[in-house]
Amino acid sequence: SWYLSWALDTNEEEREKRKTIEGGRAWFETEKKHFIILDAPGHKCFVPNMIGGAAQADIAILVISTRKGEFETGFGRGEQT
Predict the structure, then answer these.
(1) Which of 35, 39, 19 is nearest to 27 (CA)?
(2) Where are the domains of the chain?
(3) Rounded distance, CA 4 to CA 17, Å?
(4) Checking DSSP bridges between strand 34-39 and strand 24-29, what pairing results, if any?
(5) Per residue in 30-53, pLDDT tens?
(6) Handedness of CA 57, 8, 79, 66 (dihedral sign)
(7) Comparing C-alpha atoms, which of 57, 48, 46 is closest to residue 20?
(8) Average per-residue pLDDT in the chain?
(9) Long-range pairs, 56-63, Cβ under 8 A, ≥24
């Protein structure tokens, strides 16, 4: 799932650590609607930043990896999922 957030993680530190630290934004329009995409941090150290980003949203999409073993690895000692 990292490659999806990489597009909005423009900060060099975020790309090096492969973690969203600050919320990212992108937008697009259709003929009738204007959409803003927010990328909020998911790492446990950045929960306040995640809350700030999530509070701006009307809807949410939760992205979870379906690669074999990747999701389960997050339940190991010191990991997060």
Answers:
(1) 35
(2) 2-73
(3) 15
(4) antiparallel
(5) 999 999 888 777 777 778 888 887
(6) positive
(7) 46
(8) 78
(9) 56/23, 63/1, 63/4
- Residue 16 contacts residue 1 (beta carbons within 8 Å): no
CB–CB of 53/39 below 8 Å? yes
Q: What is the pTM of this model?
A: 0.55
Task: DSSP letter for 78, please.
Answer: T
Confirm if 37 and 48 have CB atoms less than 8 A apart: no
Tokens 């609607």 sit at which residue?
A: 33
> Which residues have CB under 8 Å from 43's CB, separation 6+?
19, 20, 21, 80
C-alpha angle 67-73-77 in degrees, rounded to nearest 5: 170
**Alpha-carbon dihedral sign for residues 69, 1, 40, 60:** negative
